[in-house]
Automatic annotation (TrEMBL):
Class of enzymatic activity (EC top level): isomerase
SMART domains from the UniProt entry: S4
Cited InterPro entries: PsdUridine_synth_cat_dom_sf (IPR020103), PsdUridine_synth_RluA-like_CS (IPR006224), PsdUridine_synth_RluC/D (IPR006225), PsdUridine_synth_RsuA/RluA (IPR006145), RluA_PseudoU_synthase (IPR050188), S4_RNA-bd (IPR002942), S4_RNA-bd_sf (IPR036986)
Protein name: Pseudouridine synthase
Alphabetized UniProt keyword annotations: Isomerase, RNA-binding, rRNA processing
Entry's Gene Ontology BP terms: enzyme-directed rRNA pseudouridine synthesis
PANTHER family, per the entry: MITOCHONDRIAL RNA PSEUDOURIDINE SYNTHASE (PTHR21600), RIBOSOMAL LARGE SUBUNIT PSEUDOURIDINE SYNTHASE C (PTHR21600:SF92)
UniProt xrefs under Pfam families: PseudoU_synth_2, S4
E.C. numbers: 5.4.99.-
NCBIfam families: PRK11025.1, rluA_subfam
Length: 326
C-alpha cells in the first residue's frame, strides 16, 4: 500500500494501510510526518471535522494506530511557500552535519548537534537537524528524533531509524534508564556541596510564542544532579545530569542555584557574559557530552561521547591560562 506518491500532498483522498512497524504511534504525529509542511493546527482541524477516518470511523488526535488500520487522508492544500523544502540554501549546514555523525547502524543514528541549529523546523524555522538528515538520507524510510535539544545547546542527539527502536528508546527514557550528562560553564564558584537541584518547573508560553520556564510550586517535579569538573577564577565547569527531562531544565536549575550558564540569552547574566566576551565565544555553553543507554536491538550497553566544539575548547584553554597565572 505504500508507494512513492504517499508523501506528496495531492488533491485526492488517499487510503493508507498501517504496517506493523508504524503501529502504536498517535494519529496526529503520524499525519504530521506524512503531510510534510502542513501546519499542526490544520491537522487537528481535519481530525476534528471528521475528514480523517480510521477504518471508516471518526477518530481523535490521541488515537494509537494499529497494524492493519485503514486511514483515510483527505486532500490538503498548502501554500507553495510552506511546501517548499528550503534545504538548498542550507547545504553547507547539511554537509556539516554529515561530519558530525558519531555512530550509525540499521537502528540508530547519533549526531553531535552544533549549537544554533534547531532539532526540527517549526517556531518560524523551516529547517532543522531532522530535515537535514532526511535530505542526507533520502532512501531512509524512517528517521525520527528520540529526544530533543534546545536550539542553542550542542551535543548528542539520538535519531531512530526504525519505529521499533524509537519505541524501545522512549521506554528507556520513561523508565529513566538512559543517562545523559552535560557540560556547562557557569558563573562564579559552584559550591561542591551542591550536588543536586530539585525545583519544580513551570512552562509559560508568551504571546510571541517564546517559551519561558520558571521555578514554581505549580510546576512539575524536576531534578538535576551536579558535580564540579574544573574551577576557574570567575567561572566553574560543571557536569549536569538531568534526572527528569523538562524544557530548559539545566538552564533554569543553574540560574536558580545562582550560577547561570555562559551566554544564555534567556536565563543568563549580562555581566558574566561581558567578562567572557573577550574570549570570543558567543554561544550558550551547554553541551550534551555523554549518553549511556541499552541498544534497542542487541541489548548491549552503549556509551557515546561527543567532543566540545573548537570555540568552547578555546575558551576553556584561555580560562585555564588566566586562572593558573593568578
Amino acid at each position: 500500500m505504500h508507494n512513492p506518491e504517499d508523501n506528496v500532498i495531492n488533491a485526492n483522498v488517499r487510503f493508507v494501510t498501517i504496517e506493523a512497524d508504524e503501529e502504536q504511534q498517535r494519529i496526529d504525529n503520524y499525519l504530521l510526518a506524512k503531510l510534510k509542511g502542513v501546519p499542526k493546527s490544520l491537522i487537528y482541524r481535519i481530525i476534528r471535522k471528521g475528514e480523517v477516518r480510521v477504518n471508516k470511523g471518526r477518530t481523535k488526535p490521541e488515537y494509537k494506530l494499529q497494524a492493519g488500520d485503514v486511514v483515510r487522508i483527505p486532500p490538503v492544500r498548502v501554500s507553495e511557500k510552506s511546501n517548499a523544502a528550503p534545504i538548498s540554501t542550507k547545504l553547507n549546514k547539511v554537509s556539516e552535519l554529515e561530519q558530525q555523525i558519531l555512530f550509525e547502524d540499521d537502528q540508530l543514528l547519533i549526531i553531535n548537534k552544533p549549537s544554533g541549529i534547531a532539532v526540527h523546523g517549526g517556531s518560524g524555522l523551516s529547517f532543522g537537524v531532522i530535515e537535514a538528515l532526511r535530505a542526507l538520507r533520502p532512501q531512509a524510510k524512517f528517521l525520527e528524533l528520540v529526544h530533543r535539544l534546545d536550539r542553542d545547546t550542542s551535543g548528542i542527539l539520538l535519531v531512530a531509524k526504525k519505529r521499533s527502536a524509537l519505541r524501545n528508546l522512549h521506554e528507556q527514557l520513561r523508565d529513566k534508564t538512559i543517562q545523559k550528562d552535560y557540560l556547562a560553564l557557569v558563573r562564579g564558584e559552584w559550591q561542591s556541596h551542591c550536588k543536586a537541584v530539585k525545583a519544580p518547573l513551570l512552562k509559560n508560553e508568551l504571546s510571541s510564542g517564546e517559551r519561558i520556564v520558571k521555578v514554581s510550586e505549580q510546576g512539575k517535579p524536576s531534578e538535576t544532579r551536579f558535580s564540579v569538573e574544573e574551577r576557574f577564577s570567575f567561572a566553574t565547569l560543571v557536569k549536569a545530569s538531568p534526572i527528569t527531562g523538562r524544557t530548559h531544565q539545566i538552564r533554569v536549575h543553574t540560574q536558580y542555584a545562582g550560577h547561570p550558564i555562559a551566554f544564555d540569552s534567556k536565563y543568563g547574566s549580562k555581566d558574566f557574559d561581558q567578562q567572557l566576551a573577550p574570549f570570543g565565544l558567543n554561544r550558550l555553553f551547554l553541551h550534551a557530552f555523554s549518553i549511556r543507554f541499552t541498544h534497542p536491538k542487541t541489548g548491549d550497553e552503549m556509551v557515546i561521547q561527543a567532543p566540545l566544539d573548537k570555540a568552547c575548547k578555546q575558551l576553556l584553554a584561555q580560562l585555564r591560562s588566566l586562572t593558573y597565572k593568578n
